[in-house]
Amino acid sequence: MKKRKLVVVVALIKKNNKYFIGKRADDEEDNIGKWEFPGGKVEANEDERTAIEREIMEELELNVKAVKYLTSCNRETDDLIAEFKLYECDYISGKIKLHAHSEYKWVSKKKLLNYDLPTPDMMLAYYVINNC
Are 36 and 19 in contact (CB under 8 A)? Predict the structure, then answer.
């Protein structure tokens, strides 16, 4: 059976040397209540930078600019290969309003692993800790 491929873009939003993470309110059962970097799926005929900017507007009502691709990691299930691509994003404007998360925090990179992160976000957090 051929596995379906999915690209997920993830935003690394920094403010005052801290990074935005949100506590997931709606998702697959195993991710509800876990902390994550915000982002979402790239739609058909959409480039990754446009996708991350759209997703952050939908999830947080923030205008951001995707400025730099940083790294990626894969998560594979029986029928799916999901590639999670991390982009550094600059805050442009807006006041945070949560739509996909129940709460949020600005966290120093040293404390990222103190939160219950899904596996892909944990892998991305290791990158942030060691490279940002």
Answer: no
Measured on CA atoms in the order 121, 127, 125, 100, is the torsion positive or negative? negative
Which of left, alpha, beta for 89 (phi over 0: left; psi -120 to 50: alpha)?
Answer: beta
Contacts of 55 (CB under 8 A, 6+ apart): 9, 11, 38, 39, 40, 41
Three-state SS for 109? helix
How would you classify the pairing of strands 63-76 and 80-93? antiparallel
pTM metric for this prediction:
0.92
What are 72-104's pLDDT values in tens digits? 999 998 888 999 999 999 999 999 999 999 999
* CATH architecture of the domain covering 4-131: Alpha-Beta Complex (3.90)
- Domain definitions of the chain by residue range: 4-131
